[in-house]
Amino acid sequence: xVAKGQGDGTVSAWVRAxxxxxxxxxxxxxxxxxxxxxxxxxxxxKPNELKSARERAMDTTPWREYKSGDRSYYVNKExxxxxxxxxxxxxxxxxxxxxxxxxxxxxxxxxxxxxxxxPATPPRAATPTHEAVGTAALRQQTSSVTRHAxxxxxxxEEAEAAFQSLxxxxxxxxxxxxxQTLREIITEPLYKALRTLAERKAVFHRYVDELKAHQAARxxxxxxxxxxxxxxxxxDLKPYASYATFKKKLVTHPLWSELEDEEQAVSIFxxxxxxxxxxxxxxxxxxxxxxxxxxxxxxxxxxxxxxxxWKDVQHLAAVADMPLTEQLRVxxxxxxxxxxxxxxxxxxxxxxxxxxxIRDAFRSLLExxxxxxxxxxxxxxxxxxxxxxxxxxxxxxxxxSSGSSAQDLFYDALxxxxxxxxxxxRTVQTSMREHQTLAREAADWDAWKETVQESDIxxxxxxxxLRALFDECVYQSERDTRDMRRRTERRLRxxxxxxxxAFRHVEPPLDIHASFEEVLPCIRxxxxxxxxxxxxxxxxxxxARAAWDRYVRRQTEKLADAMYAPGRSRTDYTDLDDAGDExxxxxxxxxxxxxxxRRRTEYET
Length: 605
Known about the structure:
The structure is a single chain. By secondary structure, the protein is mainly alpha-helical. It has 21 helices and six strands. It has helices spanning 7-19, 53-59, 88-95, 130-149, 156-169, 178-185, 197-233, 243-250, 262-301, 310-313, 324-347, 349-372, 381-384, 392-397, 406-435, 445-452, 456-459, 463-503, 516-523, 527-534, 537-564; strands at residues 23-26, 32-36, 41-43, 63-68, 71-76, 82-83. The protein has a three-stranded antiparallel β-sheet with strand order 1-2-3, with no helix packed on it. The protein has a three-stranded antiparallel β-sheet with strand order 4-5-6, with no helix packed on it. β2 (32-36) and β3 (41-43) form a beta hairpin. α9 (262-301) packs across α11 (324-347) and α11 crosses α12 (349-372). The longest helix has 41 residues, at 463-503. This is U1 snRNP protein. Residues 99-132, 562-605 are annotated as: Disordered. GO terms for molecular function: RNA binding.
């Protein structure tokens, strides 16, 4: 028992003593390793606590000493040079280090132990010595103190919080590494707040990542605060200025001392220069548009015919403050409009205007049908034409000899409807996935409608559009079911083909007069039957039985042919069912969707 006032000091003393207790062992191959009885860990490298002053000094050089039998050799870890003799520069450096004895290690047991399979407690010597007895007592008392000092937490979150408080107390920053931090915290009681090294390392990296994120956010906030101040400090900065100019103007300003480093200054300069360039580009664009508008106004004030040439209006160039290339571009655009107007007049402007009125009237007819719901995304010209056959606006379209026809305008409207319908379908499918709602049959209409109308876009749609969306969902569900059933049937057909082929090679041969139940024990261990068995308990017996019946029928036919024509078989039975790996089966016929003649189009928006 220790006194109350001396408890903490005694615990620290025992912990420090236990940290220096390293026991040296050799494995079966003769390689030396060290075991820590308190930490219950073994390492290949000699611990720093046991190294002499010369050994610790060698760690600061690129040279490392290794053993080959009883001889020592030296390797330079940077140049990869190796030598049997100690290098002269290393010898001269080590001569400056005063000799001191290495810390004593615990008694090494004579029995070799593999480091990978080392026991939790090192093996004891056959004859206990005074040193071994003292070591055992020290280990027993240290273990007792360590177990008493090890903190215990109710939850994993509390343990992680305690370990993070240790990192905070040790001033771990964003640039700290795990190896550096481990050396500083391994002797702390809170180091064992977490049970495994992996947990400690994960919490350390998460703590460092949070520090980095906090520093980045604080750095960005500071940059955002300094950016407008620096811009006001250099109002004459040009968009083409360099960082050297920017630094020269601000290096003596008090704002420059608020920067953390050069990298932050460069980032602020790049942001300021990008902003200046964007403002300059917008100003130049607005100025160019203004000059083009002014020059166009000058051209419109004079009489220009399609035969007018540039030299006839070149005198206006002296008045307009703009480059010659811009003037030529504005003049060419203006001449193109004049020539187009002249062509319209020559071809009969009145006739073209009447055609436009007829097309506008037919477009209004299409819009009316869309509002009524008789024209929708799944309509076809063949189904829509009978509805408008007697409409006068359609009859007027037949008198137009040029331009878009009634069918062209119909497909233009249909394309717009299909794009709109595709957008609605994406919204509906998203709602169905979120609420796990299915639309497989007409009975699902009420639940489906209640789910999809949670979206404001779908809620505003008319009833006929909702019906069309529901029908499309039901169609897609039925299509997916058909595809899955077809894939399952195809897979079972392949399994049956493989099983029939395997029947021919069973030893002893199967009796074709036996029933399926009688041959089942003989074929149960066939890989082909096991593959069929994995396809599902409901289908395996039916498919395997059908494969056996077909095999029996084929073999019976072969025997009948052999009876009537012993010299030559009437039929070549090397067909698709009995062929080898090269056999192929045709795909089932693809039937078009009977609901629509026009091809469905998927729009990517």
